Amino acid sequence: MKSKIANKLMKLKNILPIIFYMGIGVIYGYFTSSFLDSKLGEAISLETYLIVLIFLIALLYLSITIQVIIHELGHLIFGIISGYKFTSFRLLNIMLIKISGKYKIKFFSLPGTAGQCLMTPPELKNNVIPYALYNLGGSVLNLVTVPLFSCMYFIFRDVMELPIIFIVLAVSGLASGIMNIIPIRFGEVDNDGTNFLTLYRNPDAIKALYIQCSVNAELAKGTRLKNMPKKWFYMPEDKYLNNSLSSAVAVLYADRLLEEQEFEKAEIIIDKLLSKKNSVAMIHRRLLICNKIFCLLIKENFEETVKYLDTEQTVFMKRMKNFPSVIRTNFALELLNNKDNKAAESLLKKFEKIAKSYPYSADIECERELIEIIKNK
Fold first, then answer.
1. What pairing do the DSSP bridges indicate for beta strands 102-107 and 94-99?
2. pLDDT band at 7; cut points 50, 70, 90
3. What is the tens place of the pLDDT at every residue in 162-198?
4. Which pairs count as long-range contacts for 144-152, CB under 8 Å and 24+ apart, including other chains?
5. How many CA atoms lie within 13 A of 99 on its CB side?
6. DSSP code string of 222-253
7. Counting beta carbons within 10 angstroms of the beta carbon of residue 16, is it exposed (0 to 12), middle (13 to 18) or buried (19 or more)?
8. What's the confidence (pLDDT) of residue 153?
């Protein structure tokens, strides 16, 4: 009975975003059609209509980008209020990151996210850190802009194109705020609402959040996983492996074992995590499969490798083709499985090109060592 209710709730959560965005589309359509009527009248040329349509589409994309910036600024502002310190701020694939006390521009992208603000957490006190404001700050700031831009709409209602600009900003702020605060998993990653609910329900997840933020902060400094405090890397008890935050600690543990070249131990952790279908965030799951494929290739177990390269994994690896561990896995596939030296060499050149602007030098060092193992097979 419980499983049936859970399945129904899951289906409802999948439908909610569609219903919500349809509603947002209706609101946007109403205001844009009113704008077209007021500005163009009835008799307009096709050329004029297309120009205005392009303007409206560009305005929508621009407003979404602005709301992404506002959302991440919300995490930053409320994170600082909660005692966190700046680590990095990303919009699309452009990242501002603090390395050795200096701010640098690097390039990094993550499927399912248009931006991301990562921060160094305050120290754990009784296994607790403040998490509510940091997690929900982005949505709060998005929602704050809704009445602000709505007021601007009425104030500048008769000033050229300003009214449509402000109302689109208000509508996109409403969309971003609500869809990030309602607990839903979007494709590869959990949204802020899901993470907040997980942290509220699972005390172990708070410690997991601390570890993830701390590991990321150390990576930004250039520290290798294997040189970080060993207590951060462990396999949580099964009762805690029911959410993506706690499972992420186990993912980091598998990554560290891989970096230490403890491939058999890493594979055991990977297999256990892959058996947990709903608790591991999809992006972590797909990257774990990449590492599983790598471990199999090292053992020259080519037949078993094939079963992990299904359509979904292949599509993911194409989307993440510029991610260092994916390049390393593809390199191993080409060199060891396909025996294609030319394709493997091309991937090496690609890796070195990406390494120049990649934000985490420690990851690059690790991947170079793993690539050398492949070369020597």
1. antiparallel
2. very low
3. 778 888 899 889 888 988 888 876 655 678 888 998 8
4. 145/67, 145/70, 145/169, 145/170, 145/173, 146/170, 146/173, 146/174, 146/177, 149/173
5. 16
6. T--GGGS-GGG-----GGGTTSHHHHHHHHHH
7. middle
8. 83
